[in-house]
Amino acid sequence: MISDTHVHTSFSKDSTAAPPAQVERCLALGMKEVCITDHHDYQANAGENDFVLDFSDYLPYMERLRQRYAGRIRVNVGVELGLQLRVRPELEALANSLKVDYLIGSSHFVDGKDPYFPEFFEGKSEKEAYGRYFQVTLERIRAMDCFDAFGHLDYIVRYGPNTNRHNTYQAYREWIGPILETLIEKGKALECNTAGFRYGLGQPNPSEDILRHYRSLGGELITVGSDAHEPGHVAYGFDRLPGLLKSCGFRYYTVYHSRIPEFIPL
Description:
Blueprint: E1 4-7, H1 19-28, E2 33-40, H2 55-68, E3 74-82, H3 88-97, E4 102-106, H4 126-143, E5 149-150, H5 173-186, E6 189-193, H6 195-198, H7 208-216, E7 222-225, H8 241-247, E8 252-257, E9 260-265
Parallel strand pairs: 1-2, 2-3, 3-4, 4-5, 5-6, 6-7
Antiparallel strand pairs: 8-9
Helix pairs in contact: 4-5
């Protein structure tokens, strides 16, 4: 079983899953390791920082969890950082200070709004909304280095009016092309996030044509995560991944230990 490198617990505001329950699910599925990656995301709305982790609580707890399961499954500790240029100094300093295995960088809030909510799309065509999301994402990836892999690149299509019906690499290549090139230049991984299957997209995030283009550019660092917020979603859709990723030209996926990438055969 492919190891899940994007799993949330009750340390994230949007999850009620007890950390041991997530690890137990991974054990039941036969994984050799898992990475817990709870949210640390300064919201753009004034004073609302509901997704900010208390690292003085989070890190010691995760170390105890790691020790509890030692010899049964490797529990890696990570964080999903919400990238925003306005807090770039804080995030860069945090990334340099954290003793963790893996940092995911993600775009959630754009212009003070999260595409999870319909208001993000108000007053914009779908093309404009998606384009703005990818434009801001490109700016963040170019400017910031506080992450190991970029998570769910086309996150926005989970919630758009037509979801991913019109989302292709070609439709947004002016931003997605440079995003992929920048990740490769910086030695950052691209995440294959299987929550897209769970949202009924028929594709992971990002879509298969984006994954294929990333590989054609020479991208080799590909991480795999379910974005699970409850035990039943751990490793969702992983049975499809070996064939899908191999068809895109990948032969290995990547896990991080102490923020150093290691390749594992698919």
